[in-house]
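User: Fold this one for me? It's Universal stress protein.
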Amino acid sequence: MDGHVVVGYDGSPESVAAVRWAAGSAGRLGAPLEVVHVWGIAGHLDTPPVSAASAYVRAGAQEVADEGAEVARSTAPQLQVTAVLDDGPPARALVRRAAGARLVVLGRHGSARLSGVLLGSVALGTVQHAPCPVVVVPRTQVDRASTGLVVVGVDGSRHSLGAVDAAGLYATGAGARLRAVACWQAPANSRSLAAWLRENPARSASDLAAQHAEEALEAAVARLRERYPQVEVEPQVEEGPAAHVLARHAEKADLLVVGTRGRGGLAGLVMGSVSQWLVARAACPVLVSRAVPD
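Assistant: Here's what I get for Universal stress protein.
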């Protein structure tokens, strides 16, 4: 996990929380931090101002970037921090800055509705296209003390394995312990389930669901112990809706890691329903990994 950490800053309380979390994480990872403020006149950043008014606007935008960098320095005084002014649509600019980065960090803004879940358009666009993991930080993160715990949701899917790798990399760099959580629920009654039960009278559908969760967790833990041996791993299987179970664990975590889509994801969505719900509502920052291992 080489490279820098990128954080978006626009002066809002949500972006203050994001910068503070990014500064702390960059310090733990030993990575430099870029605090990026995006102003809205695409194509004018590197050209001479066309008027005194545009020069004034650009100077004000630079002040916002510098303000964000000062927030980072006050949080982590030893950290290497750069204030960056970029232009164009914010999500596009942040994706561009993410090339070669370890993480992109954003504050959680609830300005766009997707499948009944509030998720800011900048966060959504960045998650969809960034080449590295994206962390979305809630405003309430400002006063939370570190717990040294990273939680990752596991379901046996390829996207889940990508989340496992991202969690292992982050926990290794941050010196955190890692809790891998697999959830299961009894499947709803259906014609296919009834046929399966007739053919397998000795086993219940709940037993099968629990077994699948345990197998997914075993595979994830084996991967973590092989690839990230320095990390202390806590395996856990729980019954219940994945979003609610993971949200409960997030209450005592520094970071929750999820894949963009798992076995419960909805076809046609870039983010699965569980990931969407957690990004919008979890008490701690949520890292979304788009990686799909071979």
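One thing worth pointing out: DSSP finds nine helices and twelve strands in the chain.
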